[in-house]
TrEMBL record:
Alphabetical list of Pfam families matching this protein: Oxidored_molyb
Protein name: Oxidoreductase molybdopterin-binding domain-containing protein
Superkingdom of source: Bacteria
Domain called Oxidoreductase molybdopterin-binding: residue spans: 271-406
Transmembrane stretches, start-end: 21-49, 87-107, 128-147, 159-177, 210-228
Repeat recorded as keyword: no
Length: 409
């Protein structure tokens, strides 16, 4: 079987003259840097949810020691989550051609016989299964979540989170084994020959450098059609960005909408000025405020973006409303406020409520916004009132707020 060139187990089956240590090494080193950045930005992104704060924010309750690194998410700089998640998603999409080319370059090894020459070899091949399987799993779950909007109801986070740890563990082992060889190959300190070089190469149709330009061009194209989803003025260039569908229209409320009021099942009768009351609860009891009463309180403006886990973000918008810390003061917290639990009018859906940390409630830029860009919030942007907090993931900026509960969670 090993010698029959019609079967993939035979080295002679694989004929592309592009395969060899140089091509694999270049792609491998790009992935070494890129995937490390993806892993770090991904872990940081998860910390931004403040999962230690409350079960409401915790999307992977069984994470155990994998949550060792979690930290209290800061509110400075205000674009922190926007940058982190923008890099995570844009880079992930950009690396797809590199990942595919890298896998293509080593695919003969998948079929190599015998399956294991020694115990070390067997362990190496098992780690490769975790590496390739884990890598494909992370890229596929990531892209599906970005493109199809929660195809894994409630379970994308644990899948992607645990997958990342499995994948990265195998990735570190692989990098330790292979990086020295890849660097030597690129410095041409060693003869360019290994089992990836086809024993009976076909005529080249493209040079190795040409092939690399092709892969790089694919990445560049994906980058250029994705990166625009990180700013209002560039959004039209983001051809590959999801949610091109719900047209936010123009004007002050004309920025990205993910879930409309109709989608969230918000009943207009409930948001009506006569019916809606904000219920604020804290140490000294409960107060109820109509929108008109809220608008009588001292109002402040904050320029803050919305940045979604899916990798899109808006430019800074001008929000205007009541400071969360001022609302805390109404219910007995004169100094710094405690943690805060926010609930919306929405009855179903994982993001209908969120927990905010004391530092987020205390930041003077954190608002219960009534207006955006000089106008009332539109129904789709959370009318009558929405939370907006600097540096936080979009999920924590609850729309259609009904109730704020201050107190240690
Ligand atoms: N009540 C409520 N608030 C919510 C959501 C939601 O589903 N329900 N979605 C959140 C998410 S995931 C994001 S990214 C921001 C912005 O979402 P939008 O584009 O739908 O306005 O609102 C947040 N606020
Ligand atoms: Mo989001």
């Amino acid at each position: 079987m090993r010698d029959d060139p019609r079967l993939p187990m035979s080295p002679r089956f694989w004929r592309s003259p592009l395969r060899g240590p140089w091509f694999t090494s270049v792609l491998g080193l790009v992935l070494l840097v890129g995937i490390t950045v993806l892993f770090v930005t991904g872990l940081v992104s998860y910390a931004a949810y403040n999962p230690d704060l409350s079960p409401v924010n915790d999307k992977t309750p069984d994470k155990g020691i994998l949550g060792f690194y979690l930290f209290a998410w800061p509110t400075h700089p205000h674009w922190l989550y926007r940058l982190d998640q923008g890099v995570h998603v844009t880079l992930g999409i950009t690396l797809i051609p590199v990942l595919l080319a890298k896998l293509w370059s080593v695919v003969p090894r998948l079929f190599a016989l015998p399956p294991a020459r020694s115990l070390t070899h067997a362990l190496e091949r098992i780690s490769l299964l975790l590496l390739v399987g884990g890598g494909l799993f992370e890229f596929v779950t990531g892209v599906l979540n970005v493109q199809l909007d929660y195809v894994f109801p409630g379970s994308f986070y644990p899948l992607h989170f645990y997958g990342a740890w499995v994948f990265f563990a195998a990735f570190v082992a692989h990098a330790l084994l292979k990086t020295p060889m890849a660097l030597r190959t690129l410095r041409r300190l060693r003869e360019e020959k290994n089992d990836l070089v086809p024993p009976r190469p076909a005529e080249p149709t493209v040079s190795r450098r040409g092939a690399l330009w092709f892969v790089g061009g694919g990445s560049l194209l994906l980058f250029l059609t994705t990166v625009g989803q990180n700013a209002d003025s560039l959004r039209r260039t983001a051809l590959l960005a999801p949610h091109g569908g719900a047209d936010p229209g123009s004007g002050p409320n004309g920025f990205q909408i993910n879930k409309t009021a109709a989608y969230a099942g918000i009943d207009e009768a409930e948001t009506d000025a006569d019916a809606w009351r904000l219920v604020v609860t804290g140490r000294t009891g409960t107060v109820r405020l109509s929108r008109a009463q809220l608008a009588e309180l001292p109002l402040y403006s904050s320029a803050l973006p919305i940045a979604c886990v899916e990798g899109w973000s808006t430019s800074d918008q001008w929000w205007r409303g009541v400071r969360l810390r001022d609302l805390a003061a109404l219910v007995g917290y004169d100094g710094d406020p405690p943690d805060l639990f926010v609930e919306s009018l929405q009855r179903h859906g994982a993001f209908r409520r969120a927990a905010l940390r004391a530092n987020q409630a205390a930041d003077p830029r954190s608002l219960l916004a009534l207006y955006v860009n000089g106008e009332d919030l539109s129904p789709d942007h959370g009318y009558p009132a929405r939370v907006i907090v600097p540096a936080a993931p979009g999920v924590l900026n609850t729309k259609w707020v009904a109730r704020l509960t201050f107190g240690d969670l």
